[in-house]
Amino acid sequence: MSDKHLSTQFDSELNRISSRVMELGGIVERQISQAVFALTQFSLEAVEQVAALEERVNAMEVEIDYELSSIIGRRQPTARDLRMLMAFSKVTANLERMGDEAHKMARMVKSIIESGASRALPSGELRVAAEMASALLRKALDALARLDTKAALGILKEDDLIDDEFDGFVRKLITYMMEDPRTISASLDLLFLAKAVERIGDHSKNVAELIIYLVEGKDIRHQSMDVIESAVR
Q1: Distance CA 34, CA 54 (A)
Q2: Which whole number is the average pLDDT over 171-194?
Q3: Spatial distance between the Cα atoms of 95 and 66, rounded to a whole number of angstroms
Q4: Phi and psi dihedrals of 6, rounded to 5?
Q5: pLDDT tens-place string over residues 163-174
Q6: What is the pTM of this model?
Q7: Where are the alpha helices (DSSP H) in the chain?
Q8: Angle at which helices 44-75 and 79-115 cross, to 10°
Q9: DSSP state of 123
Q10: pLDDT tens digits, one per residue of 134-153
Q11: What is the pLDDT of residue 1?
């Protein structure tokens, strides 16, 4: 079999993996969208849809991981190709964890609804951060599809805004619980929900860092923004 034929097969396998990762990202995006809808509308139907999608996300992560391991074992890729496969593996893991956070959000919403405190809590103030996190994932998937390091850089900066929203919401929620101790139990559910939103933003940031690693071959985790900007051509 010619080297060209082997190369064509390998490229086909890489394209398939890329398509599968993007498909997984689309499902996770739907999960988060439904979780945000469940939060804003206190919809049990949306909660159930998030749970149903969770099974698909978990199954796809296992399938993609198996395909990646198979390619590495059979092809023994060169350094750059191996970097791409490892980046896809880490992106897949981050997407699965985002799905877990969306599922966690849905469970917390269900708990709040069942407690009967849904209309008394300041959940509307969390909607902004939740929608920002959902939009950040969408941008991360788009940047991954185009291997756009400039867009990835923008995602790193936007994640800081979600962190600021989270910190502000926690302060307001603590004040709310102090003023009305009867809402402490439901408010703690809302606090865990807010943390899940923040974690979705963190995982989108991880995807952005992996895009830069994939294109530039530089691990920019834990680096200052000045160092990161200099790494992105």
Answers
A1: 12
A2: 82
A3: 16
A4: -60, -40
A5: 888 888 888 888
A6: 0.88
A7: 3-41, 44-75, 79-115, 127-146, 149-179, 184-216, 225-231
A8: 160
A9: G
A10: 899 999 999 999 999 999 98
A11: 42
